[in-house]
Each structure stands twice: as structure tokens, then as C-alpha cells.
Amino acid sequence: MIVVLTGAPGAGKGTQADMIASRAGFRKVSTGDALRKHVQIKSLIGQQAEAVMARGELVSDEILFEILREELGPNPEEKILLDGYPRNVAQAKTLNSLGKVHPVVLAIHLDVDASELVTRLSGRRVCGNCGATFHVRLTPTKASGICDKCGGSLQQRTDDREESVRTRLSVYDSTTKPVLEYYREKGLYDRVDGKGTTEEVFSKLNASLNRLGLT
Questions:
Q1: Can you point out the beta strands (E) in the chain?
Q2: Which of 32, 45, 69, 116 has the most CB within a 10 Å radius?
């Protein structure tokens, strides 16, 4: 069975997906991670994806789905948490084609206000040396602009600049939000408030899973 975890950039999906996997007995599957893995091991589908990316093109929904199907495996009893997929209604409908073996039983929307998302993402800073991540408001370093771990210089990623963040959120609204309506119509949608500490948000997610006896 599959639980879909979705939400806008900056909502905290990755962190919460890891916690659900470690505490609630789910296997986390991320199409981004799976794509990188198949490219690295040079599987047949990974080679196809690599060729597309080498041309500067986006990997098609069809290739992503084939990679996802490989990752899901044949076990219908396994509890799988999909992180960040599906991203559009076409992907959701294709995923539904696996329903006999891997039915989607719940789609959780980790919901955070756009203003909070802009604050979260635009305040993120990354060490250019060791890759450690900090936040100017939530996890500030002892010395401004200096990494606490290695003393390297902190940088703001281009896609974390406010104008870029707002563009990313606009793309999410137009492509991924319709996925929420798709699952709402199927009676599988549940909204979880993404504000609060990491533990507070996890508690809300766990309660959502508990209502279906998934934990």
C-alpha cells in the first residue's frame, strides 16, 4: 500500500518522510533519489534518463514512472511512503494503474502558508565548503555568514532567493495543487497543518496515519 506525502517546496516533506520511515515502519521512496540511483548504477532506464538529461531536457513522466515501478517492487504488503510524487494529475492517474498491487490508501497534504514558505526558503544558507545547511532565523550560526561546522562561507542558493521561491510556489500551485483535488474526489485526501516544530508536525502526521490504522 502507498501513502502519498505532498506539499509545496519548503513544507518539510523530506524531513517528515524520513521520520515516518524510521518510526512508523514505512519504506520511503523518492523519485528524485531513485532517478539519481538508476543513473549512477547505469540501469537500462537510468541510461535512458541520463541521455535525456545530457541533452538539457526534463525527464519525462513515462521514464519517471518506470523508475518508480522498479523501486516499488512486487510486495503488496509493504507500507510505502511516496515523497514528492505524483507532481501532476497525469502522474497520479498513471500511479493509479498500479492499484492492484500498490493501491494509494491516503494522500497527506502537508500544508504551510505561502508567506511562511517564502520565509523558510529565502532564509536558508548553505556552506560552500561542507554543504551544511542553516537558516538565518530558525538555525542561525554563531557568527553571521560563517559555518559552525567547518568555518566555511555560507551562501544563498539561486533558487532560494525570494523571487525564485515565489516562482517555484507559483509552479506548484498550477501543477501539483490539482493533484490534491484528484485525491479529494477519491476520498483519500487529508490535510495536515505543517506549522510547528518538527516533532509537533510529526505528531499530526502520525495521527493522520493512525486514523487508517497505518501505524
A1: 2-6, 27-30, 80-83, 104-111, 124-127, 133-135, 154-155, 189-193
A2: 45
Mean pLDDT of 37-66: 92
Confidence of residue 66 (pLDDT cuts 50, 70, 90): very high
Number of domains in the chain: 1
Mean pLDDT value of segment 128-153 = 94
Residue 33 falls within a domain, yes or no?
no
Active site residues: 13, 87, 124, 157, 168
Q: Which residues contact 46 (CB under 8 A, 6 or more apart)?
A: 35, 37, 38, 39, 40, 67
pLDDT at 56: 86
What range does the domain containing 172 cover?
A: 2-26+79-210
* Residue 39 within a domain: no
